[in-house]
Amino acid sequence: MKCPFCFSGDTYVVDSRLSQDGMYVRRRRQCTVCKKRFSTLETLEYHSITVIKKSGKKEAFSEDKLERSINTALSSMYIENSERNKLFTTLKLHLFQEAGKHRNVLTTTMIGDEALKLLKEVSPVAYIRFASVYKEFSDVKQIIAEIKRLK
Q1: What dihedral angle (degrees, nearest 10) is formed by the CA atoms of 61, 66, 67, 73?
Q2: Mean pLDDT across the chain, nearest whole number?
Q3: Which of 69, 76, 83, 109 shows the smallest number of beta carbons within 10 Å?
Q4: Number of Cβ atoms within 10 Å of the Cβ of 142
Q5: In the predicted model, is pLDDT for residue 1 greater than 90?
């Protein structure tokens, strides 16, 4: 790891800490040249997962795309950042585990269903917002039927 201050490649780890959920490792590093300290964050890589879309097209799994869609469902709702982070971490972990069972391949249906399960626990409104896009509701009757199923 290069030092962000002097760009030397000669740094070492001073301390490592695991996050509460066990999904991140925070490392405190020190440069041997300029002696300055900095932190790095180590996370799982999800790029090896392939997503098969409804059209049959394949693409690489995108954490950002998933996060944007969840944030859209949660928009204008006050949900603590820690709760959002927990939701994203749990969702990514479940998807990563599911992909492992299927040779690192997921379908958009698997992703959407897992997101709905977790959103249901966090907020019924966010669940309906996400479901209306994911399930492609075309009229109000479908939304009402989904609300009845949610109860």
Answers
A1: 180
A2: 90
A3: 76
A4: 14
A5: no
